[in-house]
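Deliverable D2.4 — example input (structure tokens):
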């Protein structure tokens, strides 16, 4: 990317070629505006972030400590503030992504109002949120660079060459807030053509990674709810193909496909695939069906479906709704086959939806997958649907029980009680939770850790805290003490909300366009000046 000085020189040359008609255009101002808008299209973003993800995947393969993380964001502002916070606290956005959660789109962004995570929301909302997130991230770039440009001008006006060089270096080495988004396309919102069309819109909006799941599209359920129905491998692979074609058509060959399997918690299938030869994918899928042997025509009822399996006629168990049931206890085997098949047919990463965060359970499945696909790696949902406190206290309890330790002070089913919070068991459980991501990345092949809907919960919690005080005895102190004073003390840039919304950038642009006659908002009477 061209430097500040190179971009300024480029515009100076261009202006000089206009025969004086561009004398009112300041080449340095034009350079600033160009650098503040590095990504001109969503496809520019998708290509750039796909390269980041591919490099991060290679880094993880070399060192499992190099795992990546993200938080789900339901609004562009939330995503923007997350990336600003990451840069402030950690100095870099490296290995940090955004996650776009279908659950949060359904719950918070549908025109129908709040909906369950069952693919009932408008599918156009998905690319719209991707575009919104990147609009806010690009604005974060523009705002931060604008501050650097102002500081640069101040240093020049003061003749401080040391500060000027430092600021030019900061501008030329500026790290963008634009990071990869892993975007949830649910089960594709229809057939493979519908999946392809929606994938194109998502990629055009900036998505470099698309997560697709193997549930039936019109019967999709949240991965942590009951009633999940999976599709045969051939149906799922057609959607993986559709997404790959969309990436290739749009010139994003490095695009990443995350194949999610819900088979661990799904006990049903909608249809029986056609097997063409023994041992093919359809045959392997059908082997998991719960069946009853058919010995004669008398064993068959009107409308029953009968198939031949292992040389025998069998009747798959069909429910009153027409769905077929899998054998109990086959979930993990189906997950392993799903994952191997997906990776062998074009997927890049896996997502195994589990019922609890257990490194041993996840790692055992990954070990089996890696027997056939050695570099298999996961995106994993550190889900708020898990009761993390109870789960890990019970895991510690079980580990201690295996060691023969005295557990008479603990009741396993009641370990969530606050009375256990200060116990040795609870403290060790918290240490296990703290180490979960690093442990799971080292022992269970997890490349990317995400929390699907954390900002749904943080918005609810912070609003509850404010409402309790503001509408109670604390009154205005609830806001001042609980919000504004903390913003000031903790250096939250949003305390100057006018600046965050673009007021200073607007003033500078007015000056670029109108010179001394510009009417600015940031003068001495702007109350934002009270925050220093």
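Example output (designed residues):
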């Amino acid at each position: 990317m061209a430097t500040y000085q190179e971009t300024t020189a480029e515009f100076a040359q261009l202006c000089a070629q206009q025969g004086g008609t561009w004398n009112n255009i300041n080449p340095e101002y034009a350079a600033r505006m160009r650098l503040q808008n590095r990504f001109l299209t969503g496809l520019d973003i998708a290509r750039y972030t796909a390269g980041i993800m591919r490099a991060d995947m290679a880094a993880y393969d070399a060192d499992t400590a190099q795992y990546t993380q993200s938080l789900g964001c339901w609004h562009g502002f939330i995503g923007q503030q997350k990336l600003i916070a990451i840069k402030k606290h950690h100095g870099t956005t490296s290995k940090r992504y955004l996650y776009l959660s279908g659950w949060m789109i359904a719950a918070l962004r549908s025109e129908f109002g709040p909906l369950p995570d069952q693919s009932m929301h408008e599918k156009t909302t998905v690319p719209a949120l991707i575009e919104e997130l990147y609009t806010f991230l690009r604005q974060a770039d523009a705002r931060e660079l604008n501050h650097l440009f102002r500081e640069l001008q101040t240093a020049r006006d003061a003749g401080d060459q040391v500060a000027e060089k430092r600021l030019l270096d900061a501008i030329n080495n500026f790290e963008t807030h634009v990071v990869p988004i892993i975007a949830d396309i649910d089960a594709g919102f229809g057939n493979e053509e519908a999946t392809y069309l929606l994938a194109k819109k998502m990629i055009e909006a900036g998505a470099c990674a698309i997560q697709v799941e193997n549930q039936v599209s019109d019967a999709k359920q949240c991965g942590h709810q009951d009633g999940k129905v999976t599709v045969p491998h051939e149906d799922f692979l057609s959607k993986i193909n559709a997404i790959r074609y969309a990436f290739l058509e749009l010139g994003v060959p490095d695009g990443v496909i995350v194949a999610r399997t819900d088979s661990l918690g799904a006990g049903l299938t909608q249809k029986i695939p056609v097997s063409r030869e023994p041992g093919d994918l359809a045959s392997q899928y059908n082997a998991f069906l719960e069946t009853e042997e058919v010995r004669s025509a008398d064993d068959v009822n009107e409308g029953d479906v009968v198939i031949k399996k292992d040389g025998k006629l069998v009747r798959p168990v069909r429910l009153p709704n027409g769905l077929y049931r899998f054998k109990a206890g086959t979930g993990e085997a189906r997950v392993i086959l799903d994952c191997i098949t997906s990776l062998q047919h074009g997927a890049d990463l896996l997502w195994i939806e589990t019922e609890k965060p257990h490194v041993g359970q996840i790692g055992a499945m990954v070990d089996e997958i890696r027997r056939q696909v050695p570099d298999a790696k996961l995106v994993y949902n550190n889900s708020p649907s898990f009761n993390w406190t109870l789960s890990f206290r019970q895991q510690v309890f079980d580990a201690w029980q295996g060691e023969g330790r005295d557990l008479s002070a603990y009741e396993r089913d009641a370990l969530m009680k606050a009375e256990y919070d200060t116990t040795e068991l609870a403290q060790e459980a918290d240490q296990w939770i703290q180490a979960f991501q690093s442990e799971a990345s080292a022992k269970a092949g997890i490349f990317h850790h995400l929390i699907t809907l954390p900002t749904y919960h943080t918005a609810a919690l912070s609003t509850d805290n404010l409402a309790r005080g503001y509408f109670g005895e604390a009154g205005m102190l609830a806001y001042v003490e609980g919000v504004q004073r903390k913003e000031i003390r903790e250096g939250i840039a949003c305390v100057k909300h006018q600046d965050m919304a673009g007021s200073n950038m607007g003033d500078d642009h007015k000056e670029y366009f109108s010179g001394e006659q510009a009417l600015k908002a940031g003068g001495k009477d702007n109350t934002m000046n009270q925050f220093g």
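The two ends are 34 Å apart (CA to CA).
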